[in-house]
TrEMBL record:
Entries under HAMAP family matching the protein: NaMN_adenylyltr
Family designation: Belongs to the NadD family.
Organism: Bifidobacterium canis
Name recorded for this polypeptide: Probable nicotinate-nucleotide adenylyltransferase
Keyword terms: ATP-binding, NAD, Nucleotide-binding, Nucleotidyltransferase, Pyridine nucleotide biosynthesis, Transferase
GO biological process: NAD+ biosynthetic process
Gene (UniProt): nadD
GO molecular function, one term: ATP binding
Pathway: Cofactor biosynthesis; NAD(+) biosynthesis; deamido-NAD(+) from nicotinate D-ribonucleotide: step 1/1
Length: 231
């Protein structure tokens, strides 16, 4: 078996160190999966979150893994455009439940951009606000597949695709009623999305348990504030 001479070994070590210095001085970062990215990769998890449940959390975590994201920002909607005639829980309650639910995951944060912006919530405004905060980052907008079914009718739809990639998360057995625009939206099936906010609201209203469908802190928040008692 041939052995490297001390000189050859030193040369190898020195080349290795030079490569490390080069990497460190490059603009960018190494992701949790070990890949080198020139820019931060940020997920924007948009939803009404009435309430946030474990399916949303698993979906965000899965998308973060598959797309190698550095962070996922949960963005509870202010006034959802397609629900102007429906009862939606107060935005501060939805925001606080989202903060409680995401607090323990170091990759998850929550943004108030949609809640603090006056008027109806449009995703184009969400994306512009987050882009202003992260001018260099690669953005990934994540939401439910049913929500994006009519995406081409959303305000400034084509401009949205210039700002972010779109990832639609689906429930098991989901089939799209409307064909999604070719090549614009990725789909990812998340088994835990068998949970739905509608179901959680109904169970809470009927006094049925919601333990383990939503994080423990959210169970307590719903009970303490009687969020769904009257709905
Ligand atoms: P929604 O109609 O309440 O939800 C439709 C379906 O998608 C439901 O099954 C819902 O399940 C699911 N879903 C919603 N958000 C999800 C998420 N983040 N992860 C996994 N499943 C999700 O949808 P929405 O909450 O009003 O809207 C979702 C996002 O799309 C928001 O950010 C909203 O601002 C945006 N949007 C924008 C426009 C526009 O710009 N014109 C129009 C519509 C929607 P759950 O009920 O269990 O969450």
């Amino acid at each position: 078996m041939s052995q490297a001479t001390p000189d050859r070994r030193m040369a190898e070590l020195s080349a290795y160190r030079e490569r490390q210095v080069e990497l460190v001085s490059q603009h960018g970062r190494r992701s949790a999966r070990g890949n080198w990215h020139a820019h931060a990769r940020i997920g924007i998890m948009g939803g009404t979150f009435d309430p946030i449940h474990n399916g949303h959390l698993v979906a965000a975590s899965e998308v973060a893994w598959v797309y190698d994201l550095d962070e996922v920002i949960f963005v509870p909607t202010g006034r959802p455009v397609f629900k102007l005639d429906k009862r939606v829980t107060n935005e501060e309650d939805r925001y606080l439940m989202t903060v409680i639910a995401t607090a323990s995951n170091p990759k998850f944060t929550v943004s108030r951009v949609d809640i603090d912006r006056p008027g109806v919530t449009y995703t184009i405004d969400t994306l512009r606000d987050i882009r202003a905060q992260y001018p260099e980052a690669e953005l990934f907008f994540i939401t439910g597949a049913d929500a994006v079914a009519e995406i081409m009718k959303w305000k400034d739809a084509n401009s949205m695709f210039d700002i972010a990639h779109f990832v639609a998360v689906t429930r098991p057995g989901y089939s799209s009623k409307v064909p999604l625009p070719e090549g614009k939206v990725d789909m990812l099936e998340i088994p835990a999305l068998a949970i739905s906010s509608t179901d959680v609201r109904e169970r809470a209203r009927n006094g049925e348990p919601v333990w383990y469908l939503v994080p423990d802190g959210v169970v307590q928040y719903i009970g303490k504030h009687g969020i769904y008692d009257e709905q």
